[in-house]
Structures are given as structure tokens and as C-alpha cells.
Amino acid sequence: MPITANNPKIKSWLEVAENSDFPIQNIPFGVFLTKDDVVTVGTRIGDFAIDLGALHQLGYFEGIDLTDDVFLQDALNEFISAGKKTWRLVRNRIAEIFDSENPALRENKKHKDVVIFNIEDVEMQLPVYIGDYTDFFSSREHATNTGKMFRDPANALLPNWLHIPVGYHGRSSTIVPSGIPVHRPMGQTMPADATAPVFGPSRLVDFELETAFITTDANIMGENIPVNEAEEYIFGMVLLNDWSARDIQKWEYVPLGPFLAKNFASSISPWIVTMDALEPFRCASPKQDPTPLPYLQQKGDHAFDVNLQVGIAPENGEETIISNTNLKYMYWTMSQQLAHHTINGCRINSGDMMGSGTISGPTEDSFGSMLELTWGGKNPIKMKDGSERKFINDGDTVIMRGYCQNNDIRIGFGEVSSKLLPPIPTK
User: Fold this and answer.
1) Which residue numbers are catalytic?
2) Cα dist. 117→45, 51, 199 in Å?
């Protein structure tokens, strides 16, 4: 089935700014609360939020096999469970409805009044119910940098890293959408000059620049997903700020890895950009040497050219851009991550989220965490207001943006923006 929604020649009858992340060729999916306190599944074109529940009730999806209430939900899980054919049919139909050549909705003011909202008049929600969350560690540059800091620089990568997409199971209960502030976590740390651990707020709160993919129902327990089929079960992607407390992490991670340092908050962008929308931006991934085992081997292009940026805005201050990088640098692809995740028969469900791991590029200004950008705090970043940052201060807002662009079109994710607040006192 062709992806007609990707036609770069289509123009919408809704106004779309030239450099918008959300042209008619994007058509992401999300969940929002209207000013009438109605929660609905929607999409976005330009600066307009579109109520898909209302569109469906008005008959605009006639001929597509959808349940009556599929868009009258507070999460996208049911729609995602419908599968890739349905996702494509719906996205193609939305592009058709809002095509500048189609008068059906354009000339129906009564319908437009219940379908279309200004983006400022809606409140974005978490787009899916996330039952399970896995975070990978798939950037060779990031793994090498952290290995140099914490282990033998000559043997920065652990022996398994070039053979498997390393990952861990995270905590889904503290995943929040953009705009929700997070609190500095409390926990145990072991100061360099101490002989016993101390309890208190983390002093080294960090961001991790990541993307994440959202899955559909993919297998039954005991069944694996072949690497060459994995993309069939990936609905789309979001931006992910996987907050980290480096001092807590250093004390707790041996022998079982990330725990309280990573599960206090993870922030995601509210619009899921579909893999269909990202199709024009496929590219080659880094050469893998040694060649992975057969179940991880794949041919063709399975990486995506997504420009990524991080800024920090002090409270009441101007934002400073501190990193620019790209998803294409990732050593392990999403399809390899999903294939490895299920090789043991692990079940994957609709709405599960898989984080890429910190995305770092080859240059010092393309690293994806403060840990790397300041090299553990040794090289503070100078902000526009003259202050310095080794890690994230209370009151700072971390802003991540992502977009793809070629000669024809720009497809973006918007942003994930989160403010760090002081810790909540322990009881």
C-alpha cells in the first residue's frame, strides 16, 4: 500500500509556517485535553490540533475498519494495536481530508468548529499507556566516553558491547510528557572523601538525549521477532530526556546496573511521529565490526537521519544551545534492538517504549549528556548569562528538539521541555 501522505507536493488548506515541524506530510499522533475538558486522540498540522474522535464520528474515516471509539480514548494503545495497515490508511486519509484541493471539511464550518483547535488551546497528555519501558545503551561514542571516565581508557568498551545491544528494563510509572517539571531526586551517594555513604539530594543531575520508539502487539511469550520483520511492529518515535543522577548512579550501579538514579523521571515529546513519516529519511548506519551474530544481521538502510539539539534555559534566563547531534550515529539500530529484546521470547505489547540510549556524536559539541559535555564536571559549560554549568541546576529547563530535513520537506518532533525543581523533602 503506497504512503500517499508523504507526497511532498501536497499542501494543506490549514496555514503551515515554512519551517514548521508539522507539515501535512508529518501527521503525528497524540492525545490532548480540549478547553472543554474532553480528552481525545488527535493529530497536528502546523499550529492546529485536530480531534480525530470528532472526525471519525462525523464519518470522515468511512471505509476504514475502525472501532467506533478507537479515537475516543485517553491513550493511543487501541489504535496502535490495529496494526501497520490501519495506521497507513488513517494517515493517508487525514492527508486527503486536509489537502488544499479537498473542500469536504474545508467548506464545512460546523464540522471545522468541532474538529480543529489552536495548539495553544489544548493540553498535551502522555500519548500512550506505557506498560513496559526498556532503555538501551547503543551509541558507541557515548559508551566509549563513559568507559574512559569510569574504567580503563584503553579498554573503554566492555567485551559484550560490540556483540549485543546492551539494555536494561526501566520504570514506566515516572514517564511524563513535555512540560511536566521533575524534582531533583534524593538518594545515597558515596562522596570521594567519605568512608561511608551519605543520604541527600543528588548533586549531579544530568539529562540524556535520546529518542524512543513505541511498539504494537508483536509476539506471544516464547516467540522472537526476526530482525527483518522488526520494523513492522514499530509505530513511531518520540524524543526522550532520560534524566539521570550521576552520583547516585555511581554508588548503586554495581552489580545490577541502573536503578534509582534513572527511574525518578523520564520526559518524552507528546507527538508520536510515525515510521511512515520518517521513511524518506532512512540512511546507512555505522559499519558493525565484528559482524553481529546471524539473528542481528540486516541488509539495507535501517538508521534515520534525525537532527537533534539540546538547550538549557536558566530560570528567567535566555536559552543556551549546548549540543547538536544526530540519531544516525547510533551503532545499533531500532530493528536490531527489538530483535535482540525478543530473542529470548520476551513479549512485546502495544504502547511499550524502547529508549535508544544516550545519543552522542563524534565531536565534543555533539555529546548527549552533561557528563560528557563537561567531562564529569571538569570543563564547565559557559551560559549566555555568564553563569557556568557542570550539571543541571534547580530552576533550569532542559529543552530537546529533533527534526529531519531534505530538499523537499521537513518533518519534526517538536520538543520535550522539562524544568528541574528542588527535591521534595523526605517524610
Assistant:
1) 142
2) 10, 8, 48
